[in-house]
Amino acid sequence: MSRRHIVTRVPKLIAALALGLHALLFSPATLAAAFDYELAPQKIADGVYVLLGLKEDFSFDNGGNIVNTGFIVGPSGITVIDTGSSKRYGEQLRAAIARISPLPIVKVINTHHHPDHFLGNQAFPADTLSATAVTMQGIGDEGPAFLDNMYRLNGDWMLETEIAAPHATLAAGRVDAGGRTLELIALSGHTPADLAVLDIASGTLFASDLVFNGRAPTTPHASIDQWLKALDQLQQIDFRHIVPGHGDPATDKAPIEQTRRYLQWLQHSIREGAEQGLDMTEMLARPVPAEFSGLAEVSREYQRSVTHLYPEAERAALSAGGRK
User: What does each of the 324 residues of the chain score in pLDDT, given as a tens digit?
Assistant: First the structure.
C-alpha cells in the first residue's frame, strides 16, 4: 500500500471509529443504562407501594431522585401519588408499576406544585392527572422557572422533560379511585396548597412534604405558622403507616414530631435573631442544635431558610419596635 493511500484512508478510519463510538455511547440501550433511577417499589401495606428517594439535594449524580413517590393498587385500577422529577423518572415509575400490576392507572395525584412531585407527569395519561386548584395555579405560574432550574441542577437526566399540567381538580373529601376509598386532606404550610392522602383500607397516610423524616425540611414557599397547624391536623389522624415526602416511612407519629420540633426551633431562631438585630451574615453563621445536626442536608437547608424567611422576620421586628 502506498503512502498516499495510507494518508487518505486514515481520516476515513478515524471518522468511522468516531461514528461507531457515538452510536455506542448514545444508543437507546446505553442511554437507558446511564440514566437509570433504579426504582424499586417497596410494599408497605396491602396494595400500597412506596418508591424511596435519596435524602440528598438535586444533583447530576442522582438526577433529582430525592422524592418519595407511591401507588395504590385497587380492585379495578391504580392511583399514583406524585410522579417524580423528570420525564425519565415518570417513565421508569410507570414501568415499575407495570411489574407489580397489569391494571390501568386511573388517577395521578400531584400533592403540591414543587417540581420533584409533578415533572414526571408526561409519562401518564393526561386525563388521569389531578391536583387541587391552588396547586394547578402554582404549576402554571412557577412551572416554567422550576423546569429551567431542574435542567440546571440535574443535567441530562431531564432530557425531553416538559410540563404536563394536571387538569382534573381535586378537593378535600373522600373519593373512589380504582376501587379504593381515599380521603383527600387539603392543608397548607409547606406550600400554599399541600394535599395529604389517606388510603382508608390500609390506614396509609401519604403526608407529602408536610412531613420529612431524617432530612431537614425545605421552606421556599413555607408559612411556618400554617405548617404547624397542618401538622396538628395530621397528628389527629389514626393512621397505621405514614409516608413522608422525603425520608423513610414509619408506623408511628415520630416523623410528624421531628418535623414539628425542627420548624419550631427554626421559627424561634429566626424571630429571636431579628429581635436582637442580627444581620443576615450573623444569622447564617448560627449553629444548628445537636438535636437536628444528624438530619440530612440540615446546614444547607437552614441557610436557605434564613435567606427565605429572615427578611420578613426583620420587617416584623422593626414594625413591632416602632409600635412600642
Answer: 444 444 445 455 454 444 444 444 444 444 556 899 999 999 999 999 999 999 999 999 999 999 999 999 999 999 999 999 999 999 999 999 999 999 999 999 999 999 999 999 999 999 999 999 999 999 999 999 999 999 999 999 999 999 999 999 999 999 999 999 999 999 999 999 999 999 999 999 999 999 999 999 999 999 999 999 999 999 999 999 999 999 999 999 999 999 999 999 999 999 999 999 999 999 999 999 999 999 999 999 999 999 999 999 999 998 887 555
Global pTM reads 0.89
The H or E element spanning position 43 is: strand 42-45
What single DSSP character describes residue 215? B
d(CA 225, CA 188): 10
Write down how long the chain is: 324
Q: Which domains are seen in the chain, by residue range? A: 40-252 (3.60.15.10)
Are 118 and 132 in contact, with CB atoms under 8 Å apart?
A: no
Task: Let me know the angle formed at the C-alpha of 173 by 171 and 176, rounded to the nearest 5 degrees.
Answer: 100
